[in-house]
Amino acid sequence: MPKAKKRGGAHQRGAGGQPRNVQPFSDEDASIETMSHCSGFSDPASFTEDGPEVDEEATQEDLEYKLKGFIDLTLDKSAKTRQAALESLKSAFSSKILYEFIMERRMTLTDSIERCIKKGKSEEQCAAAGLACLLCVQMGSGIESEEIFKTLGPVLKKIICDGTASVQARQACATCLGICCFIVTDDITELYSTMECLENIFIKAYPRDRDTNGVSSTPNTVLHISALLAWTLLLTICPMNEVKKKIEMHLHKLPSMLSCDDVNMRIAAGETLALLFELARETDADFFYEDMELLTEKLRALATDGNKHRAKVDKRKQRSVFRDVLRAVEERDFPTETVKFGPERMYIDCWVKKQTYDTFKEILGSGMQYHLQSNDFLRNVFELGPPVMLDAAALKTMKISRFERHLYNSAAFKARTKARSKCRDKRADVGEFF
Prior knowledge:
Layout: H1 27-37, H2 56-73, H3 79-95, H4 99-119, H5 122-139, H6 143-160, H7 167-184, H8 188-202, H9 221-235, H10 240-250, H11 263-283, H12 292-303, H13 312-331, E1 337-341, E2 344-348, H14 351-364, H15 368-374, H16 376-381, H17 392-398, H18 402-424
Antiparallel strand pairs: 1-2
């Protein structure tokens, strides 16, 4: 008889039969834990009437066991293992609320992040900076978060200002510094110090010669973009007298960035301009910008840009953004957006709110909706009030039947087909679409 194959080969175990690696945090873990940890916030569409019962306590214990393993692996000798552990922790922190678990281990996590940023290479530093952002998002604005920022703030600033560090690491640290300062800082001097650090980075993107027609992108352009966006986020929480100073300092310089050959720099500069105009008009109803005609001409050109040497995707993205920027600068208008999460709705009706939402969406990714539902700090930032608690019975009543959903989808499909058919009809005078 042939010998039975052994399970768990040598490559899966190290010396003494101990496992070498912990399985990475998966989407399945996230979905199970999200459902069991906070069932009151589940999306009605995802509620199952006859699903199997989940042992919440066992699931929670299993999750915490995995997370403890990841935290231990952030101290591993292998850089790849440390980076994988950091990424797994990032995935877990972005997809669920783990306040109590983190509270007990915040100092251990802070030490691990500090060590990885100081001694790691580029990718590890980026992962550690991303985890630091999520750690502060989880902890919210409290004394514990202040302690974390006091430890990590100087390290982040040092990397940002270190010309020998990789651009990607400096970029990640700039974003992290801005977000953590936004969440944590009550000290106005620390806020100004952080803004000055970021300011010293992005002003290097300003052309030195005023007669320069364009700004060429450099390897540091991504760093300048991140520093500018992080600085803009912090500007939204500054006192009005400081806002006025910053507007006077930068409003006449930022339009030069609109000529940069990097599309992301043009977009970042455009959105920052729209936000500065919005803040300027809030502080002074009679605010007047001298070069308004020249600026609106630039913005209109970018909103209708048809240069063939630029990628189609970049042009579409740019035109969409600059149509809104032009409306903000010229007509003081903002196109309201609606964000749906669970049974709730949030309206983004100004550039300040849009900048804040885009920033947190960037770091939370697909976990943004879940955090909007259940993260007290984010709900406070967007003035959503306390979390809406819904039990299983309420969710069941909100759920539409499969037949109703089918009818709705069919009607939407027919309407969409009709609209597209009109646009595709060559006999119709539809004009030019951007």
